[in-house]
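Lecture notes, structural biology module. Today: joint structure prediction for complexes of two components.
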Amino acid sequence: MPAQWFFVPYVRRDSPSGRPGRYCNMDDFTGDILGDGGKWAEFECGGGPGSVFELGVAGVKVGGVTQATLNLILAAPGLRPIPVKWLEPGTSLSIATTGERTFLRDTLRQDMGYTVAELDGWLGLSGSPTNAQRNTALNTKTFVQLLDFLATRWYTPVYDPAGWQLANGNIVAQGTPGALPGVLSCSNVSSVPVSPTPTTPAQVAAAVPST
Amino acid sequence: MAFPSTGVLEVFTGANGTDISTLTNWGILGGAADGQVNTNAASNVSASGNYVGNYLDNTTYGPDSEAFITVTVLASYFGVFARLTTPTGSYDAYQASWSASDLTAQRNDNAVQTQLGATVTLAKTAGDTLGLEVIGSTIKVYTETGGTWTERLSRADATYSAAGNIGWDLFDATTAMRLDDFGGGSVVAAAAEIPSLVMAPPIA
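The predicted structure, tokenised, for the full assembly:
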């Protein structure tokens, strides 16, 4: 049965007691995943204000599910699937297509709040490298090394009682009641990051079957 | 290792209306109201709202530590905490939460919850006990029904590794909920098994 990696946003879900909280959006599919006899696990990475994932983002591996369940997850908005051929941690990124490189180098990196300078640093490049040079450097990396780079830091959630927040995470103007009182986000991407992450990509890779 | 390795610490005996924080060694959890003793159990009857929480304030436990509590009258939500630091304010902690039929492990960062991994669907019945065990970077949630403990979920999280307090919280729209028999502490490692020596009978 198939397995796949995703990058998945955290979504607001407060405790019944009213205390602010968030959860990994993959939990919406827990019933389907467990129904197949599969499982999923996550590591926290990046996100926060200035990124697409304001409440944080998780790298998630899903395994032991049917293709139907996988298709259900793939159809969900906001979840970023990783090419299936990169399933195993040791997979060389040299097999990436041009489009996949662009996705990694630009879209995913930026959405998760990492700068080009940080990417270049990870790739061992200095000065003003071209994208061609970045692609060449990517060829020397493995999938788990990419995940480790994307897990370089994570940000703890912060809560601001002022203002209101909708259930979809959007902030409603302060003073205008929304679905959830208070604003939940991650600490700003410019703040001091917390490292290491609570769970590592390698732990997640090992915890979820690949078949 | 069998869970729990520790025993009951508090049975909430006292006059109805007694604030939990006035019992020996109890403090009020940050952001929660003080629980009250009612019918010799912990309740969310409170002067300040239906969300209450308390923690043992006389000592810290762990870092390998555990906590458990029994729900004697069902209601919306209750939980237990371990590795709880800054307990009266914006606390950090690991938590087992049981709301409706959703069982989860949570990490609290400045009193903001992050759910660890998947939700386990499990209905609760009166008399069930909820348990939390934190050993190293492994967080486990257990439930006990009819005397039998079952591990329900296991999560990995290395954020908080220091010793801390243990505690509980509960919420319901009504004040009928009751919790009892709070226990926990530093995890007691199982004693090493001493192999038995079987003597062969003497040769006649």
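Point to remember: Chain A touches chain B through 35 residues (CB under 8 Å).
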